[in-house]
From TrEMBL:
Any GO MF annotation of the entry: DNA-binding transcription factor activity
Signal peptide range: none
Naturally occurring in which organism (per UniProt): Paracoccus tegillarcae
Residue ranges annotated for the HTH merR-type domain, each copy included: 8-76
Chain's gene name: soxR
GO BP terms, alphabetized: response to oxidative stress
Highest taxon, organism lineage: Bacteria
CDD domains according to UniProt: HTH_SoxR
Protein name stated in the entry: Redox-sensitive transcriptional activator SoxR
Keywords: 2Fe-2S, DNA-binding, Iron, Iron-sulfur, Metal-binding
Keyword Iron-sulfur assigned: yes
Amino acid sequence: MATLPAQGLTIGDLSQRTGLAVSAIRFYESHGILAPVRNAGGHRRYARSDIRRLSFVIAAQNMGFALAEIASHLADLPPHRAPNRRDWERISDDFRVKIDARIADLQRMRERLDGCIRCGCLSLDTCPLYNPDDRSAADGPGPRYLLGD
C-alpha cells in the first residue's frame, strides 16, 4: 500500500479544491482514478497530485471522453502522480486522433444534413436519407446513409 505524508488531504479538502462533491470523488475513486491511503483512524487521505488528476478527468470529460478511457490513461501512471508533460503529450496525441475523427464525422454529417434541409424532402428519388423498405438494414445498424454508406 502506498504511503502519503501524514498531512495528506482529506476528502473535504479535495472537494473544496476541485469543486467536486464528496460523492463524485468517491465515484472517481471507485473507478480507479484515485487511490487514497487510510490513516491510523481509517480516514481517506489524498495526495496533492490528486487535485491535478481530478482536474485532468474534468477537462477530458468536458471534451467528451468516456470515464473508462480516461481511467485507462491514468492507470498507466504510478499512483499518487498526476500526468507530467511527457504523459500529457502521449495522452493528447491519442485524444487528438480521436477528436480529429469526430470532427470529420461531424463535418460529413453537417454537409449531408445541409443538403437535405435545403431540399425540403421534395426530391425523394435522390435524397440520401430515403430508404424504402428499409433496404439499408442489410448494411448494418444505425443511420447508414449519414455514416457514409
